[in-house]
Amino acid sequence: xxxxxxxxxxxxxxxxxxxxxxxxxxxxxxxxxxxxxxxxxxxxxxxxxxxxxxxxxxxxxxxxxxxxxxxxxxxxxxxxxxxxxxxxxxxxxxxxxxxxxxxxxxxxxxxxxxxxxxxxxxxxxxxxx
Length: 129
Fold this sequence. Notes:
- The protein has helices at residues 2-16, 20-42, 59-62, 66-93, 100-117; strands spanning 45-47, 57-58.
- It is mainly alpha-helical.
- Helix 1 runs antiparallel to helix 2.
């Protein structure tokens, strides 16, 4: 847990100094360290019971059957590259940051267009011209 706490502080400090890359890495380490600590503390239980230890869900009795694991492995082999490809494409399309200046300029753009075209805006079927 100490690693998670230190990484979280490092992420906040990196964000304060506008070092987004290092902030992302530090917060990723925070999540990884916290999940690892939680798994290590609970193992072999996945979901401990609050009423009786015999009712706890363990790693062994939480796993699926062999056939299910085989089918899901093939499904993941086919669809995981598609999902990664889509995420990569989406990241590439939206890779540029939106700044405050761009938002304020685009917020005034429709009003400027309406003033030059002689309309009052809207133009929907329920509005009179």
